[in-house]
Amino acid sequence: MNVGDTLPPLEIPITRTLIVAGAIASRDYQDVHHDAVLAQEKGSPDIFMNILTTNGLVGRYVTDQLGPRAVLRKVAIRLGAPNYPGDTMTLTGTVTAVSGTPASGTTVEIRVVGANGIGHHVSGTITAEVPA
Asked: Do 119 and 113 meet the contact criterion of CB atoms below 8 Å apart?
């Protein structure tokens, strides 16, 4: 990997099941992540994905590209437009820094953006180590 390399995009369909399962898996029982009526009463058009699910999907995107031995060392993300059911989030990434060598282990910094139909859902930088 070299600075400036782009990762292939990953399209993730945003389903109710994904949103609710991610919330349950991360023990986030906030009603806006599983109850459409209560989410609407709070001003949202529907349930929406929580940050922990987004964090997991961003991590998966990076490790899928770097391989199973990659270790995430830092994940710094910021949320924007919500992920609602029925939309698709497309993750893209660009390598912004590389240090080390394949023989000694490489550290890679990747700028990630996840966009959906209403804007950028997530943006941030992930630092991962790929052992020798």
From this structure: no
Cross-strand pairs, 54: none
Closest CA to 77 of 15, 38, 121: 121
3-state secondary structure of 46: coil
Q: Would you tell me how many other CB atoms lie within 10 Å of the CB of residue 131?
A: 12
pTM of the model: 0.93
| DSSP state, residue 41 | H
pLDDT digits 0-9 by tens, 43-61:
999 999 999 999 999 999 9
Q: Where are the beta strands (DSSP E) in 1-132?
A: 6-13, 71-79, 88-101, 105-116, 119-130
